[in-house]
């Protein structure tokens, strides 16, 4: 029985596609098992690990990024390997992982955004909030975006935490941001910004807003920024008012919004205007650029499932602006050879076991965690119990698995293909470079934002 999976003689071999929080929490749950030996390999498209902690968390939220200390310990474990700069479907294929690993975990998040589906949405100056987030966080894919902040007003569609982040960054004092790890190219543009007002549009009422209490509280603490809320927007319908008794977060949100409404304008140089029960219906352009947005007033109605939904009233207004950022939902993108649910933008699964859509049966040895599993909901910490639940199913399945026929030597395969993969030690070289540059400027780090530059630094480190 020495060949039984999960023994020191034949460890369970697990591939994790994606090196963000969900992937690391899955690794943590596996490594905590005392009665099963495993070897874990991470595959990540970018050289840099940690996913949204590096590329999504706002630069003025440094305390949230401290979670990478936990991930660092996991990545440094003797039975864990990191393969960065490796693209699934190109450098390593689905069939490669099936051959070399007993189980595969997809932890790829939700990399695409949902559209509003209105005329003018593709005009220059209209973009997903996630792209703007990637730009100021130094994501290599968005590093060279032509962000134009020469306008005085920006509209942000949505009121979840991503919408709150981009709004806050747009009105924050650039000299305060200069103390963070915000990308240098973004800081330069923000220093020259002419934006004085950001208008947030929520299609439902304040009691249904998706933002959290701390995010809303931060708005009121921004120096030189007024938070403007129309008291009429805070007059709740009976069902919304009743819902506050059961939702403490929503009740606190409404309480803070009423305080902002009572405070009104103080004449601060920048302002955030929070609108509710409105939806954009058209982006109006001039010379190919965003010039204004037409919005419609909504009212709430109770749907058959009991939820409160918005519908248009036929009352319109037009707001002039030079940029519109949409934050109306996110979805995953299909992976080559992996089932995909077009409707939900997720990998079809049952509790984390990947499902073959043709048969409805689980795909042996394949699993999913995080947003790719449940859709774009929750915060970073939500991924921990989510990943643990998937790992519990993986462990149930181990006795039923047919061991992978390959020898698990994926490193040799990558070298044969000429893939210049990044190891954990390589990442630490880059990490040291960034944090050293940051220390010289009194900042947490100065990010390298181009893959070729990252690889130059890594190659130099290998030669030392």
Short note summarizing the structure:
The protein has 464 residues and is of the alpha/beta class.
Describe the overall structure.
There is one protein chain. The chain folds into two domains: 12-111 and 331-422, Rossmann fold (3-Layer(aba) Sandwich), CATH 3.40.50.720; 115-328, FAD/NAD(P)-binding domain (3-Layer(bba) Sandwich), CATH 3.50.50. It is 32% helix and 22% strand. It is built from 16 helices and 18 strands. Strand 17 and strand 18 form a beta hairpin. Helix 15 crosses helix 16 (451-463). The longest helix is centred in the C-terminal third of the chain and has 17 residues, at 424-440. The chain is globular and about 70 Å long. The chain starts with 11 loop residues before the first strand and ends with a helix.
Q: What characteristics describe this protein?
A:
32% helix; 464 residues; 16 helices; alpha/beta; FAD/NAD(P)-binding domain; 7-stranded mixed beta sheet
Spatial ordering of strands, largest sheet: 3-2-1-4-18-17-16
Largest sheet: 7 strands, mixed
Parts with pLDDT < 50 across at least 5 consecutive residues = none
**Which term fits the overall shape?**
globular
The second-level CATH architecture of the largest domain is: 3-Layer(bba) Sandwich
Q: How many DSSP helices? A: 16
Provide the CATH top-level class of the largest domain. Answer: Alpha Beta
Structural class: alpha/beta
Task: Determine the strand fraction and express it as a percent band.
Answer: 15-25%
- As a percent range, the share of helical residues equals 25-40%
By CATH, the superfamily of the largest domain comes out as FAD/NAD(P)-binding domain
Overall pLDDT metric: 93
The count of DSSP E runs of length 2 or more, i.e. the number of strands, is 18
Number of domains: 2
**What is the third-level CATH name, the topology of the largest domain?**
FAD/NAD(P)-binding domain
CA-CA gap between termini: 45 Å
Radius of gyration: 24 Å
